[in-house]
Amino acid sequence: MKIAILGGTGEQGPGLALRWAQAGEEVIIGSRQREKGERVAAELNQELGKALIRGTDNVSAAAAADVAVLTVPYAAHVSTLETVKEQMKGKIFVDVSVPLDPENPRRVIMPPAGSATEEAQHVLGPEVQVIGALQNVSAHLLRDLHATIDCDVLVCGGSKDARATVMRLIEKLGTRAIDAGPLEAARLIEPITALLIRLNIRHKVHSAGIRITGLP
Ligand SMILES: NC(=O)c1ccc[n+]([C@@H]2O[C@H](COP(=O)([O-])OP(=O)(O)OC[C@H]3O[C@@H](n4cnc5c(N)ncnc54)[C@H](OP(=O)(O)O)[C@@H]3O)[C@@H](O)[C@H]2O)c1
To answer: Among 5, 105, 202, 209, which residue is least crowded by beta carbons within 10 Å?
Structure first.
């Protein structure tokens, strides 16, 4: 499957890119600047020892992909969505964004839509299958390819088939994906990241995560 990681040049994107490329997926890193996307892809390929990842601009990456994953700061959420709206029609869009309070990342400021993920659905429209996932997985953990991702990933979205597709991709990262139901579950999932940031600070670690128990 062709996976575009929009804003994949920062903290969260590269670990996802490396792990999916290693699992045999076709990965395209997107950036606002094509040259930066190409440069980061080249750096990641050097680490892999193979040219598995391509880099380009966000719009070209979205156009080429089957599934796009958004990893930009919340301040850039709506503006980035607007730039790829046309290219995303008929595709799956995975939102990793968390509306953290810019003045205190131990808190969130939820948007009027209810969550960043629901906001993405409003901006992209009904022709795009929007999924919320991976908001609670630390970039630090993803980036350490020797580390097991010892946490669960909650997946929500309006389409059961799209949730199933994204859950299969998440399991390729080496972790358990859990179906959390419709999109509005994102209202509960996104704030967990602020809690995990609190725990990271309090316990002087980088990769606090969640595990759900009691499921079959
Ligand atoms: N970091 C984590 O551990 C973590 C964990 C869970 C969830 N998240 C969520 O994942 C998202 C990405 O986090 P991150 O830490 O990867 O962010 P980041 O490193 O700060 O930024 C990622 C990329 O977003 C693009 N970007 C930055 N400012 C922008 C702007 N004003 N307009 C458009 N694009 C901009 C940049 O790419 P270009 O310059 O190449 O365009 C940048 O490399 C956030 O919503 C965050 O809450 C992060």
So the answer is: 202
